[in-house]
């Protein structure tokens, strides 16, 4: 089971007074009032973590667990801009295709392993049977 944790916007001595009788394993806040530290020391098992929300580490880690093992990997936070796309074929992509590619690139990072992301509209000529304006639809098919 997960240990109870609490995050506050600001930590003062009164925070722990209000938590009297409630077990909290971890207390985190952007900053701690210096006068609050002695009250934290009275709770032997309490872990105190100061987290600056403005600080973004250069590398962030993602943890996955399976079969009682832990896999740590560097999180992929890179944003690819359409200007970074390279043309590696003779035919250039249309602006609509570049827009669809940009959308697919942003979506695929959230897809699960082996998932497929389809982006862009299908060609309309193959999805709807052609019919002349004013002609009636026939229910019979010619052989």
From TrEMBL:
One of its GO terms (molecular function) is IMP cyclohydrolase activity. Signal peptide: none annotated. Gene3D superfamilies: 3.40.140.20. InterPro entries: AICAR_Tfase_dup_dom_sf, Cytidine_deaminase-like, PurH-like. Residues 133-143 have a biased composition (Basic residues). It holds the Pfam family AICARFT_IMPCHas. Keywords: Hydrolase, Transferase. This is Bifunctional phosphoribosylaminoimidazolecarboxamide formyltransferase/IMP cyclohydrolase. It comes from mine drainage metagenome.
